[in-house]
């Protein structure tokens, strides 16, 4: 850990954690965004991989395209601009979807049909569109934040898919794991909510422990540097 990073953590731990969209501030775990694909479709590891690939192809390009197009509708008068900007974000995601779908179809073939209507519904997924009512993003921020959110969401999709397949079918990627299904209900949306809730609770607990650990490490590093500077002055 660098000294500058340690000082930033000590100055405002919450702000530092806010920028970590993969673990410490995963938008699904911490804000409850993007739940529909998780609870309805991420029933197997293979479905989780397909959804993760779809999100990877959609989220960053649509965010970048929306960032460029939304400059045509700046937020000078927020209340009057919300609807146009919402349309810009959804339509830009739709354009990206038309490009991404043939790629997904070439990779996954007819397996893609198991995702049903929820695949095209990703174009209005809050993870892609929720920025329309916020401040104007820079292109760099759209790319960097989009990549972090993509990694965090894809990780959770695949993790939940593996766990639910193991609980409901006793397999992971079709390979038997254990002697029998532990919780057949995990393959249904109701079971998906239960499994996701437990997973989010564990995730949040681990994130809190990780955040506390980073604060302790940052404090120790800053103290060491302060001691070295004091010794140097003497």
Structural write-up:
Helix content is 70%, strand content 2%. The model has no long low-confidence stretch (mean pLDDT 85). A two-stranded antiparallel sheet has the order 1-2. With 234 residues, the chain is an all-alpha fold.
Write the layout of secondary structure elements.
Blueprint: H1 3-11, H2 13-18, H3 27-31, H4 35-41, H5 45-69, H6 78-108, H7 126-129, H8 139-169, E1 171-172, E2 175-176, H9 189-233
What's the rounded overall pLDDT mean? 85
Per DSSP, the total helix count is: 9
Largest sheet: 2 strands, antiparallel
What structural class do you assign from the helix and strand content? mainly alpha
Q: End-to-end distance, in Å?
A: 26 Å
- Quaternary structure state of the chains depicted: single chain
Approximate shape? flat
Which bin fits the share of residues in helices? 55-70%
Strand arrangement across the biggest beta sheet: 1-2
Which parts are unreliable, with pLDDT below 50 for 5 consecutive residues or more?
none
Provide the gyration radius in Å: 21 Å
Number of strands: 2
- Could you tell me the strand content as a percent range? under 5%
What is the element string, with H for helices and E for strands?
HHHHHHHHEEH
């Amino acid at each position: 850990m660098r000294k500058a990073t340690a000082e930033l953590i000590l100055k405002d731990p919450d702000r530092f954690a806010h920028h970590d969209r993969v673990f410490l501030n995963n938008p699904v775990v911490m804000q409850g965004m993007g739940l529909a694909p998780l609870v309805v479709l991420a029933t197997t590891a293979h479905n989780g991989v397909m959804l993760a690939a779809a999100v990877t192809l959609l989220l960053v390009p649509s965010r970048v395209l929306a960032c460029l197009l939304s400059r045509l509708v700046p937020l000078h008068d927020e209340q009057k601009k919300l609807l146009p900007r919402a349309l810009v974000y959804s339509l830009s995601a739709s354009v990206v979807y038309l490009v991404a779908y043939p790629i997904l179809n070439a990779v996954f073939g007819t397996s893609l049909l198991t995702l049903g209507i929820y695949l095209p519904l990703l174009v209005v997924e809050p993870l892609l569109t929720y920025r329309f009512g916020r401040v104007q993003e820079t292109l760099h921020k759209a790319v960097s934040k989009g990549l972090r959110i993509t990694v965090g969401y894809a990780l959770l999709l695949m993790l939940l898919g593996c766990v639910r397949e193991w609980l409901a079918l006793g397999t992971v990627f079709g390979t038997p794991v254990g002697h029998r299904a532990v919780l057949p209900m995990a393959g249904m949306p109701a079971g998906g909510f239960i499994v996701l809730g437990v997973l989010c609770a564990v995730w949040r607990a681990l994130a809190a422990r990780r955040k506390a650990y980073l604060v302790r490490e940052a404090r120790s590093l800053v103290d060491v540097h302060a001691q070295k500077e004091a010794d140097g002055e003497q």
